[in-house]
Amino acid sequence: MSRISRRQKRGLWIAVAGLALAALFVTVNSLLPTPITPALTWQSLLQQAGVNQTTSLPDGELQVHFLDVGNADSALIRCGTHQMLIDGGEPSSGKKVVDYLRGQGVDRLDYVIATHPDADHIGGLPDVLEAFPVDRVLMHYMDDDNTPTSYSYERLLTTMLDRDIPVTDTAPGQQYTLGDATVDILGPQGDFADSNNMSVVCRVSFGNRRFLMMGDAEKKAENALISSGTDLRADVLKVGHHGSHSSTSSTFLATVAPDHAVISCGENNRYGHPPPRNTGAAATAPYPHLAHRPPGHHRHDHRRRQADRHHRNRKGADIVTYIVDRIEEDIAVLQDEQEALHPLPLTALPDGVRPGDVVQSDGDSYRLDLAATAARRERIRRLQDRLRRR
């Protein structure tokens, strides 16, 4: 297993991008003043390292696994016999996440944190909740006109109801115990209209080591965290929103002052995450797709062409109903009833479309269905209310 010395790691940005079963695996020993040691590993390397099929960890040890789920998020945190999962990637990643957890000897989860309702974070969680006993789900509800409506979010809510899993609506100041580690809920600090900035932000502390997990929090949420006076210092920062330019301001980075930063992103992803300015040469060397491109190279045009392809292939087809899962700058990500995700240019949709809206397409154009949107938001609100009343 390749390891990086403390001198080499200082200021290093690590991009997690590769194969489905890869993970960035970090071990921390609270009893020794040794550096945090990350290693980018595949299944064979995990076996060589003796961390595969592990039912529990030695006392005084914490492991954090940043799972490779493409341009999405999922992280497993283990401390002794206790385990917590933060997010589960896209719907198509659910079974891969389950297989990875089983490969690590996980047989139950103390906590599952759903940072926010975008499908690239919560889409795989229903498969996890069905595969393992889960003591509690931690999440933050969004209400009123911002109620999420995706099919993945609906399946998450119904799975928690069907399996009678306790759910806690998170708030800053809450603290949870994970073996010898503590998990502090730090955000969101305030109410925001978009799901990214409403991400559950948590800090995992183990001895004098800290991991700050940002979900998809962007600069608005970062500024609110700084203004709250919360101690944000951390050894490892899981960068918000896949390293997008909308997150990780220089002020925030200086406040956190991490030794290491982890970006979860998909290779050659259509969203351009992370932009070249958010990564250094050391981080991009193993990943040519992250290297800086000259001004004449239009990476943006490439991802637009990828998004256009779905729109062109739909022409002349029957009416199909989609839900707007999220909007990534000039790309809208639609979800169909099978929970498949379809990115396309935002300009293809009616003006003013928002996440959670229901749109219909005949393959030539898209129209906003206001009545269906209102009905869907009401359906999701009722499911959320049932969870709250339990």
Low-confidence region ranges: 1-21, 30-54, 280-307
The major beta sheet can be summarized as:
8 strands, mixed
Given the C-alpha coordinates, what overall shape results? globular
The main sheet orders its strands as 3-2-4-5-6-7-8-9
* Count of discrete alpha- or pi-helical segments spanning 4 or more residues: 11
Radius of gyration: 20 Å
> How far is the N terminus from the C terminus?
47 Å
- The percentage of residues in β strands lies in 25-35%
Question: What fold name goes in the CATH topology slot of the largest domain?
Answer: Metallo-beta-lactamase, Chain A
CATH homologous superfamily designation of the largest domain:
Ribonuclease Z/Hydroxyacylglutathione hydrolase-like
Task: Summarize the structure in words.
- There is one protein chain.
- This protein is of the alpha/beta class.
- The chain has helices spanning 6-9, 43-49, 94-103, 119-122, 125-131, 151-162, 219-227, 250-256, 281-284, 299-313, 370-389; strands spanning 12-16, 23-29, 37-41, 61-67, 75-79, 82-86, 109-114, 134-139, 167-169, 175-178, 181-187, 201-206, 209-213, 236-238, 260-264, 320-328, 331-335, 341-345, 358-361, 366-368.
- The strands form three sheets. An eight-stranded mixed β-sheet has the order 3-2-4-5-6-7-8-9. It has a seven-stranded mixed β-sheet with strand order 1-15-14-13-12-11-10. The protein has a five-stranded antiparallel β-sheet with strand order 18-17-16-19-20.
- The longest helix is centred in the C-terminal third of the chain and has 20 residues, at 370-389.
